[in-house]
Please model this.
Amino acid sequence: MNYELSRFIEYLPKGATICDLGAGEGETAAELTLLGFQVTALDNNLQALATLKNLPGITVVNATLPEIPLKTKVDAIWCANTLPWLSQPDQQATITEASRSLKPNGIFYCSTRSLDPRGKESMLISIQPEKIKEALLKAELTLMKDHADPNDPKWHHWFARKR
Model:
């Protein structure tokens, strides 16, 4: 388990409900399920989600962000490296929708990475840490912790709580 995921679960009650935004093929969703959490994996890639449909304990939702069509509010949202793939207006809208999808005191985690100067990630939308902080506050989330990754300075991590 990676360090950020272990920090994330420290904030959560046993058996918490979690939505993995931009779940992809669901490595994190599967890991969270094995740890006893109830997980909803949300992504717009049907092929990636197909691999998750056969795993017990994971609810699969096909949607394109910023839409987060959950039936009930969740205890936490995991949004690892998803925001840089969205337009800047959709980044803010996704954070706002995530906040609406959280129970009171729910936890929101997101990570972003800066652009690769070699151009390998030319599809990524630039994200400035100040903009994420603004978006979190605007979405009625309280910033708990944010930090650059000590092992890879291209990455930045955010933990916030629903007010």
